[in-house]
Amino acid sequence: MGACGLCGNDAVKMPQSVLLGEADRGKLNRAGRAERDFRNLEPAESEGERRRLKEFQAREGKARPEGEETKMNRPARITVFAVLLSGLMLSMSGCNKLKARDQLNKGVDSYKAGKYEEAIGHFQKATELDPTLPMAKSYLATAISQNVVPGLDTPANLKTAQQAIGIFEQVLAREPNDINSLKQIAGIYFSVKRLDDAKEWQKKVLAVDPKDPEAAYTIGVIDWTEADENVLKELQSVGLNDDGEGNLKAPKKIMAKIKEENTALVDEARQYLNQALANRPNYDAAMAYMNLVYRRKADLDYEDSAAVKDDLAQAEDWRTKAMGARKENEEKKLKSAAGGVTMPSSSE
After folding, report:
1. Is the pTM higher than 0.70?
2. Selection from 234, 300, 250, 305 nearest residue 270 by Cα
């Protein structure tokens, strides 16, 4: 049997106890393994094997009439062939696993180089060679998702998005708590403006990891986005723009409709942004959205001027906190990039 190009080993290495003798291998080869069905291939028997069988039967007192030895030995010989075939299949499987990992590595290299179509080809080949390779499908879906254009809802773009999502769902069918797949699906839905689906999948992330700050933050962002769109839609229907200060000049019926549409969204946004900040206190982006959410809360309190004033004060407070946290985070990044060494200013 031939050698595997990747692993460099013989295709089958069977224990000596099940290997055929030289005469048997010769007859088997002459029969032409590739040209005859295994089940119809009659096993050959050597004179020595027949003699040993007779001796065994004589010792046990179970000698059989001449001619029955071959018939009785046939199942054992078929078992030998079955073991050989099984070994061949196991060896081929092992080689395929090595080839799959080789394709996986090539795909990673292509992905890092920004050659996404090339990466997709390698990852697809890896999944074909070894369907059980856990990273292959995840990497394939990730590469495909790079072809999804954010904000574009054309049929072709949505088809690409659904293709990536479908493969991530295959990963989740085997590993239901795979955080990466959960997050990736949520991110793809967000990029194609399927906000309700994106929020649903981010909540699945939090069900697995309640302390994930990005998932909680994203839910807050989605809620604010939907609330903001509702405000703009209602105000524009009467020729007004959002003033970001509670829109107290808008007709009461318009503000009542905004309150009806946005109360649940604003409450949920505050809940999840607070959750994000509880798990990442210096989360400047979450602070910035808290500022925006409190401005949407001011719309809801239009009948209570004191509440509106308090909402706007809290919005301003969160804006100030966000600016301070962002500055602090940027300074930490600069120090980390410089190896912890603070560079002297130009005045020193």
Report:
1. no
2. 300
